[in-house]
Specification:
183 residues, alpha/beta, 5-stranded mixed beta sheet, 8 helices, globular
Length: 183
């Protein structure tokens, strides 16, 4: 089983259990979206010592936690699981890392990104329009496919350019991912 050096930041106990089935690692749990100062301080300390990987659920709360941590730990790494690969098997419950397969978790941890808030994007709004990932009747479908292909987590049209820039996605990577999505 692969050993992960960084500490993985997850939302809860079920996420920890699932991730530990996939890799040998240490985790820290935020215990939901109300991440407190004590937990943030611990994440900062762990980042300095070993590095951290933020691996939250692909939902509103998970994105909220991700943003809070990124503000405090700008060089944190990020792993994403696709929404469709984190659906609960039972009808109750919400999207979550704890519902992802072991293979999906391993794949997400092999494709981590480090945020770069100083990166100037090579990709423009015109490129997003031309790719039909914004301002198009099929934009949401194409954007979902693009985000999945790049493994950057789903974002809405307003956030897409920021996410591409934040993770330093080049125009070449963008175009390659576009060529891989279905028409």
């Amino acid at each position: 089983m692969e050993k992960i050096k960084e500490v993985i930041v997850v939302e809860g106990r079920d996420d920890t259990k699932r991730i530990k089935m996939a890799v040998d690692c240490d985790t820290i749990e935020t215990r939901g979206s109300a991440i407190d100062e004590k937990t943030l301080a611990l994440i900062k300390k762990l980042d300095k010592q070993r590095g951290v990987i933020v691996f939250t659920d692909p939902d509103f709360s998970g994105e909220r936690i991700r943003k809070i941590i990124t503000q405090e730990v700008p060089n944190a790494k990020h792993a994403f699981v696709e929404r469709k690969k984190s659906v609960p098997t039972k009808s109750d419950g919400s999207l979550g890392v704890e519902h992802a397969s072991v293979e999906t978790i391993r794949d997400a941890l092999k494709n981590v990104y480090t945020a770069d808030t100083n990166h100037e994007s090579e990709i423009s709004v015109a490129d997003l329009n031309a790719a039909r990932v914004i301002n198009d009747s099929e934009a949401k479908i194409r954007r979902t496919q693009l985000c999945n292909e790049l493994k950057i987590g789903y974002v809405n049209g307003k956030q897409l350019l920021k996410r591409l820039s934040m993770f330093g996605i080049t125009k070449e990577q963008f175009n390659e991912a576009l060529s891989n999505i279905k028409e």
